[in-house]
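Protein Record: Sequence and Backbone Structure Tokens
======================================================
Scope: a single protein chain, as residues and as a discrete description of its fold.
Tokens: labelled as protein backbone structure tokens, with as many entries as the chain has residues.
Position: the record begins directly beneath this header, with no further notes in between.
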Amino acid sequence: MTNKPAALSHLKVLDLSRVLAGPWCTQMLADLGADVIKVERPGAGDDTRHWGPPFLKNADGIDTTEATYFTACNRNKRAITLDMAKPQGQALICQMAASSDILVENFKVGGLQQYGLDYESLKAINPRLIYCSVTGFGQTGPYAERAGYDLMIQAMSGLMSITGQADGTPGAGPMRMGVALIDVLTGIYACSAILAAVESRRQTGQGQHIDMALLDVGMAVLANQAAGFLNTGKVPQRQGNTHPSLAPYQTFETADGQMLLAVGNDGQFARFCEAAGQAGWASDERFRSNTLRVQNREALIPLMLSVTRTRSTAQWISLLEDKAVPCGPINDIGQAFADVQVQARSLVIKQPAAPLNNGEKAITNVASHIIQTVASPLRLMGTPPVLHRAPPRLGEHTDEVLAELGLDAAKVAALRAQGVV
């Protein structure tokens, strides 16, 4: 994070999304310098402000009522509160949309039409507007009007069916991912689509409607597993930490725990065998190619386990590190953040939380303290990500944004008294 020019500093984003997929997308845009204005419900805000525990701690180390979840995807944004169910709120959103480049929303299909805030209505005001809708199932099809959450899509897409221990083993059964991966990936895909639309607008002068669906993304990211099914008709199965097309590519027991060995080609396997004192395995007719190793996995893995258990995880990592054989520890999240490489890449950001300063009724007792988030992984050398603001308090920038729209303090106070902001 530097003071160099930001790649997207010329773009203004109106963020009507909440929870994870939409906010993840808009945080990516904000990290790249876009001015993102997040609109939330007065008095309540984004659902994730309340999704806890865990909760943020105040300066005295005491839990507050503000969930840490919200901080994961709302850095670098300006936050306002606005009731779009009220005509005055709708008028203000239309006014902001008229001067925005991008709008991101994740209401149910047709949910914003009743307020005159759907794409066609706002396109009439601003033909250059890029309007991104994020839903569970998309704008078309028999499921279009259904609500969609990440876990539901993990189940429906088949992702859970290939995640977890194999049938017949302890703990077998479909398993959810440890994070809302489909939401996160949908946010990333949405950001890519938006940037493509920005480039298209540069050539045509016209905005467009982007239809992002969690289910579409869930199916797309099945990747090699989908390709295997579509081209062979064979339904992939769960197989724990092993790989359907590579071997050895899994966890292995060591003298003091476990390690991850990810052998992706025959050269890596030969170098592992040499280092392990078992050079003959590489020329064994059962193991001399990856395809053969996959076919003879049940013979190979017990042999390897008899060797991997003779050294500690750290000893294996040290032994293989200079031999270009991918090998590493299986960290918990605390160990991952303590890793020297993670620290060297400055992947933790610390920002002071701002005090409430605009009269919005507080929903948290957070005192001035530091909020920590994970840095953007986008490392552009010429226009790197920027760091403007900590995840905002509810309504933190309401007065500031409304002043930019031409409303003076008296008008803002009147809107607040009416419950519009």
The first helix runs from residue 21 to 31. Residues 358 and 399 are 6 Å apart (CA to CA). The chain has two domains: 12-221+345-417, 249-335. The chain has a mean pLDDT of 94.
